[in-house]
Amino acid sequence: MAHGDITHIDIPVTDLASATEFYSGLFGWQIAAPPGFEGYPMWRAPNQISGGGLAPRSEGFTQPRSYVEVDSIDDTLAKATELGGTVLMAKSEITDTSWWAVIADADGNAIGLYEGTTEV
Length: 120
Known about the structure:
alpha+beta; 8 strands; VOC domain-containing protein; eight-stranded mixed beta sheet; 2,3-Dihydroxybiphenyl 1,2-Dioxygenase, domain 1; Anthracycline_SecMetBiosynth; VOC_core; globular
């Protein structure tokens, strides 16, 4: 994927088992937690391209959130702030080779950022 591509969509849920049954039954999504990410089942659409996760709902995470792949989270956070956005969550490590962060645009829409690769 390239800088600016939507790469992942998280859906906030309160009951992982129920949400897994709902989305796999409704859309035919393959849903399973990858090793090392227990409690965070990942979904993949039948096109084998679209995907994301079923993440625990929390106070700051109540609506689905899209993640955009970027070349540099650090640069993107700086640019977002310069353009009137705010940083909701600073850069955090996913694996040794991948990171994420969350920004809000001027209207308060939360957008996730992703840099790196989770490929082994």
